[in-house]
Design brief:
Blueprint (H helix, E strand, L loop, with lengths): L12 H24 L39 H4 L6 H20 L3 H10 L1 E2 L2 E4 L2 H6 L2 H17 L11 H4 L7 H8 L1 E2 L2 E2 L1 E5 L14 E7 L6 E5 L2 E5 L1 H4 L6 E7 L3 E2 L18 E8 L11 E12 L5 E15 H5 L23 E8 L6 E5 L7 E5 L6 E9 L14 E4 L3 E7 L1
Parallel strand pairs: 6-9
Antiparallel strand pairs: 1-2, 2-10, 3-4, 5-9, 6-7, 7-8, 11-19, 12-13, 12-14, 14-17, 15-16, 18-19
Helix pairs in contact: 3-6
């Protein structure tokens, strides 16, 4: 229809034109309604020569629930905006300034190497604070601070328009913008460090490619996060971010020096095996206020930690699985029971169920987040690590202690075990 207005119709062709025009108009209206209703969208498609005005998601089903008008962000800044959570939105604006500065620093081979070296200690991924990195390198500190200050000056987002005196501070060459933003990085009363980390350690050959710098905030139902590949604004999913052919810096709230999850192998001296399959009969998040997700759906991950409490604490077993993937927000809002029939705890192949002590955790899994230790309420030595954007985003911490008091009841078709707190309620059964 590009040259439709240039067509000429005369005499008897006029009626055909009117009918055709009405039919085409009706079709366009219907199509527009179906697309904008956002009941289920696929990736946007482009005509030849057309320029995409929105960021491209990593999967087709990226907007199965209308996400407060955030289905098709046109920029990184728009993508990380969360108007339904103003406190998180302020955090994201701080991260946005930091990420822009990291993007520029990553273009400098010396600064890029400095950041990457700090992100690996003893071959383990680490989340270093950008303020700590600045304190350890004067040239890097000056560069990063200048870029942060330039971003705060240029953008009309937090802290501009909210915090007093910003217009004066951005013109002060001695203003420590890094330390200032770090002091404002709080959520639900908890202070955080602005950290960088990777999902996979980049190969040495990754230096041939522009770095990817991303902000720790899921933006759609694909769980994509937004940022830059070089200077190009992009959405990146877990699969791409997990590749090691390109350096991927994720900027988020964390704890300076926090390490990634270590693994504890199963013990070799198996004493007692449980032959009953233990399954999750139901799982309920107790109210929408405890739904720790900003996109359309939640991912709930479980951790099972085995240990020997005496004569001295020793970890014996770790198992980690995503039990519920993309749980709809309306399911959580209505406190509908979520069922899962997969094996979640153990069968004959898993060791010492009845003979050990156990600690179980369920939390909101964010693949892009740094690791937080979820401490056990019964034993100060016990803690498991989970990837959460904020440290409080766990749902349940249960079964902390000797298993003899509860596993023995889980026989096929026998009794169930339920646990509940203010955040969640769940039930286990044996089959």
């Amino acid at each position: 229809m590009k040259n439709f207005s240039n067509l000429r119709f005369f005499g008897k062709n006029l009626n055909r034109f009117v009918v055709l025009t009405l039919a085409l108009t009706f079709g366009v209206v219907v199509t527009t309604f179906l697309v904008s209703s956002c009941t289920k969208e696929g990736k946007p498609t482009l005509a030849e020569g057309e320029v995409l005005s929105t960021l491209v998601p990593s999967c087709d089903d990226y907007c199965s629930e209308c996400n407060s008008g955030h289905c098709d962000p046109k920029s990184v800044l728009e993508a990380v905006n969360t108007p339904d959570d103003q406190e998180n939105d302020r955090v994201n604006m701080i991260l946005y300034h930091y990420a822009k500065a990291v993007k520029e620093a990553a273009k400098n081979p010396t600064y890029r190497a400095y950041m990457l070296n700090a992100m690996t200690v003893n071959n383990q991924g680490i989340s270093p604070s950008l303020l700590t990195l600045a304190n350890g390198n004067t040239a890097f500190a000056t560069f990063l601070n200048d870029k942060i200050r330039s971003s705060v000056s240029a953008e009309t987002v937090y802290p501009k328009g909210v915090e007093p005196g910003i217009a004066t501070l951005v013109n002060d060459a001695n203003w420590d913008a890094n330390a200032y933003l770090k002091s404002k990085l709080t959520y639900k009363g908890q202070s955080y460090d602005p950290v960088i980390h990777y999902i996979a350690k980049p190969l040495a050959s990754s230096s041939s490619f522009d770095a990817t710098v991303l902000i720790a905030q899921e933006v759609n139902d694909c769980d994509d996060i937004a940022g830059w590949k070089g200077d190009t604004e992009v959405l990146v999913g877990q699969a791409e971010a997990s590749q090691n052919t390109r350096a991927v810096f994720i900027v988020g709230p964390g704890q300076d020096g926090s390490a990634s999850q270590g693994s504890v192998p199963p013990p070799t001296d198996v004493v007692t095996d449980r032959t009953t399959r233990i399954t999750m009969s139901s799982f309920v998040i107790n109210g929408e206020s405890y739904r720790y997700e900003n996109n359309g759906k939640s991912d709930i991950k479980g951790l099972l930690h085995g240990y020997t409490p005496s004569p001295s604490y020793m970890a014996t077993f770790d198992k980690s699985d995503v039990f519920f993937t993309r749980v709809k927000c309306k399911t959580i809002k209505n406190m509908t029971t979520v069922f899962n029939t997969d094996r979640i705890l153990g069968a004959a192949s898993d060791p010492t169920w009845d003979g050990g002590s156990w600690y179980m955790v369920f939390y909101e899994y964010d693949w892009y987040a740094s690791f937080w230790t979820i401490s056990a309420p019964c034993e100060s030595m016990i803690g498991v690590k989970g990837q959460m954007k904020f440290s409080n985003e766990w749902y349940c911490r249960e079964f902390c202690g000797p298993s003899t008091s509860y596993w023995s009841t889980l026989t096929p078709g026998g009794a169930t075990i339920s646990r509940s707190n203010e955040k969640c309620t769940f039930t286990l059964s044996g089959i």
